Amino acid sequence: TARKRERKRKKKGERKSGRGDKRQHKTSPPLGFEGGQTPFHIIIPKYGYNYGHRVDTAHPVDLTQLVNGRGVHVDPLKRQYGVQLVEEGADEFDALVNLEVQWASELAIAAVESKGGVVTTAFYDLRSLDILRQPVPFFQRGQPIPRRQLPPQDLISSYTDPKCRGYLADQEEVRKAREELALRYGYTLPNLEQPELLAMLSKRKRPRQIFFGLAPGWLVSLADREVLKPTDPQLLEYYAAP
């Protein structure tokens, strides 16, 4: 007698994954299926729309603009305190910008100021830094803007030094340091006469201020598109304290 042929059992999804590939009997996998691996549209992170994908130099540039422009990534959880401006690409730099960073080398400062720009080094504590790099989630929580903390004792000398363009330095001393740096590197500071550019380049934050144009204690309502300001005398005294 002929030996009965035993049917070989296979594991589920061993050969064709139950789909097949024979003409009209085949079943195509869903769009984006990559053999069970993580699809590309999940691996690649989502980015919001950024017109031009560039930083708008018509306004002062701080950490908010640099992060939103995908230029840098700062993580306060890793104790990253901001951006360091280095001299790489100084020969190719050609922009008029009011730039605020946390540290800048001498040659990098010269590259910006030779084009008529301004560099300011400013300290942010980790909470203020997190608010500055992601302002929209903070505004959605409905909390007032806190006061920025002053730098620790070992950084006071750096942020009060006009040669470092510290935000706590005297502006007259900063002007003299700009002239000395221009004389050292052999360039002439541009004489800007346009009122709009002068107003943009002269904008500075106060030592306790986090955002340009928004003071500590103010509350930004994104839903109502309004800025709420405190009126209580005690709150005004607290947020106005140095």
TrEMBL record:
Q: Which GO terms describe its biological process?
A: translation
User: Can you tell which superkingdom this protein's organism belongs to?
Assistant: Eukaryota
Pfam families linked: Ribosomal_L27A
Domain spans labelled Large ribosomal subunit protein uL15/eL18: 55-120
Answer whether the UniProt record assigns the keyword Ribosomal protein to this protein: yes
Enumerate the GO terms in the molecular function aspect: structural constituent of ribosome
Per the record, its GO cellular-component terms are: mitochondrial large ribosomal subunit
Residues in the signal sequence: none
Basic residues compositional bias, start-end = 1-14
InterPro entries linked: Ribosomal_uL15/eL18, Ribosomal_uL15/eL18_sf, Ribosomal_uL15_bac-type
Thylakoid listed as a keyword: no
Alphabetized, the UniProt keywords read: Ribonucleoprotein, Ribosomal protein
Q: Where is this region: Disordered?
A: 1-36
Family named by the database record: Belongs to the universal ribosomal protein uL15 family.
- For this entry, the protein name equals Large ribosomal subunit protein uL15m
Provide the organism lineage as a comma list. Eukaryota, Metazoa, Chordata, Craniata, Vertebrata
